[in-house]
Structures are given as structure tokens and as C-alpha cells.
Design goal:
This protein is of the alpha/beta class. It has a single domain, classed as Vaccinia Virus protein VP39 (Rossmann fold, 3-Layer(aba) Sandwich). Helices cover 31% and strands 28% of the residues. It is built from six helices and seven strands, in the order αβαβαββαβαββα. A seven-stranded mixed β-sheet has the order 3-2-1-4-5-7-6, with helices on both faces. Helix 4 packs parallel to helix 5. It is globular, with a radius of gyration of 15 Å. 41% of the residues are buried. It binds S-adenosylmethionine (SAM). Its EC number is 2.1.1.-.
């Protein structure tokens, strides 16, 4: 079955490596994990949702696309759904404000131990995401700005490093790669 995905989420997905094992926090219908795992038979994903309605929608999508083997869904707040997981390597947090993304990352930092890459797509307050990445030891390695249906979106990718480089006020606001 063909899974329709917005260009915004396809762009987010493009930053996942082949064979990814990732969590999509705030997954809503789980379209992103379903799209990725239907295009890459070696990928696996966990869709996380804090709200019952979107959680049920995610379960429905996974069943409809026949992806129960590769995509699981968990009900819980932010990164708490990764408690006890040691193999998940990437996390996506997309379609929310940057302050909420920052809150999810900071409050859930104990569950980021196995995470090598975070792909964030904040709708506003991008600076909060960059601050959280620095605080948590994720160096920004890619960023882009895109437009879809008259809306502008930013995608910010951070990879875990031993020492993060500090960012100037301008870089925090606009990113290192977006000038
Ligand atoms: C606007 S939707 C974005 C859905 C999808 N990620 C996208 O980019 O299209 C935000 C989703 O995040 C969920 N959400 C909000 N706060 C959350 C949290 N703390 N933990 C998990 N999910 C959360 C909401 O229930 C909602 O389904």
C-alpha cells in the first residue's frame, strides 16, 4: 500500500540512515514510521504518543499498512516510552514548538543514552532546540529550511559527540548552516 507523506516529513525521514531503529515522539498517525519502514525493510521504529486519540490512530495505521513486525506503538509522555530500551539509535520529534521539543529532550535525557542522532522539526522557537542539543551533547550537523503549502519549516539534526562546540547568539537563532 502506498503511504502518502508530506514533503516536510519526507525531509525529516531523509536524515535517518538505512536500517534505522528510531523512535518518533509525538507520532500522531504514525505516518512517518510507517513510511520509513515500508520503504526500508531493515528499518524498525517505535511510535510514541501521549494522547489516547493519536495513539489509537497510530495503531490503526500500523495495522492498515501491515507493519506490525517493524513498527510498534507506545502510549507515554515524551522519551519515557524508551525506558529500558538500549538499541534505539535515532529519535525524531517533529511538528511541535521548539520549547516543547526542548522540554521533552531535557526531561527525558536519561532515556537518550543509546541515541546517536536527534532529528527535530520545530514549528517555532528553533533556538530552544539548538540550546537543548548543546546542553545534551548533540552537535548540530545538518539544518535546512523548507516551504510546503505556504508554510516554512526548519529541520535540525544533532549527532552525539564528546564535546559540543558553543554557538553564537546568531547561530542559536538562525543556525550554523542557514545563513
Ligand atoms: C502536531 S502533531 C505532529 C505529528 C507528527 N509528528 C508530525 O510532525 O506531523 C503533535 C503530536 O505530538 C503529540 N505530543 C504532544 N506532546 C507530547 C509528549 N510530551 N509526548 C508524546 N507525544 C506528544 C500530540 O498528541 C500530537 O499527536
Amino acid at each position: 500500500m502506498n503511504i502518502q507523506l508530506s514533503e516536510r516529513l519526507k525531509t525529516v525521514a531523509s536524515f535517518l540512515p538505512k536500517g534505522a531503529y528510531f523512535a518518533d515522539i509525538g507520532s500522531d498517525h504514525a505516518y512517518l514510521p510507517c513510511y520509513v519502514c515500508s520503504h526500508d525493510q531493515t528499518a524498525r521504529a517505535i511510535a510514541g504518543e501521549v494522547n489516547q486519540g493519536p495513539y489509537e490512530s497510530a495503531k490503526e495505521s500500523i495495522k492498515r499498512f501491515g507493519l506490525e513486525e517493524s513498527v510498534s506503538v507506545r502510549l507515554g509522555d515524551g522519551l519515557a516510552i524508551l525506558e529500558g530500551e538500549h538499541d534505539v539509535k535515532q529519535t525524531v520529534i517533529a511538528g511541535m514548538g521548539g520549547s516543547l521539543i526542548k522540554q521533552i529532550l531535557i526531561e527525558g535525557q536519561s532515556n537518550l543514552k543509546s541515541i546517536e542522532r536527534i532529528i527535530a522539526q520545530p514549528n517555532i522557537d528553533e533556538r530552544d532546540v539548538r540550546r537543548a542539543f548543546l546542553q545534551l551533547g548533540f552537535q548540530i550537523t545538518s539544518e535546512l529550511i523548507m516551504e510546503e503549502n505556504g508554510h516554512i519549516y526548519e529541520v535540525i539534526v544533532g549527532d552525539k559527540v564528546k564535546n559540543t562546540r558553543t554557538l553564537s547568539d546568531e547561530e542559536l537563532l538562525f543556525g550554523r548552516f542557514n545563513f
